Amino acid sequence: MATLKDVAKLAQVSPATVSRVLNKNSVITAKTRHRVEKAMKQLNYVPNTNARNLATSNARTIGVILPASQQMVYSNPFFVELLRGINHVTSDNDLLTPWPPGKVSLIWCGLSP
Description:
Blueprint: H1 4-11, H2 15-22, H3 30-43, H4 49-56, H5 70-75, H6 77-92, H7 101-108
């Protein structure tokens, strides 16, 4: 798994520059941005969300309190729709949920979670 430092080395920039590109900082030139994005693509770089959360002290995660009975949650269309709606809103706003998005799809299809 490629790291931010690997991307910086391949793009011949500093790790801080890679971070600025990831954060869409306007001080980065188009040429440098392109070089960094090309390196990220070559390395299949995916930013580490946990590292970002630690660095910013902002988890961007929401929690949901549901009934203790999984049977009730998974068999009740209200809860399934609730979770699907939450997944939709959180993914559009770069937020995290404590369950994998695919799990709700499996539940919706009537498959066992």
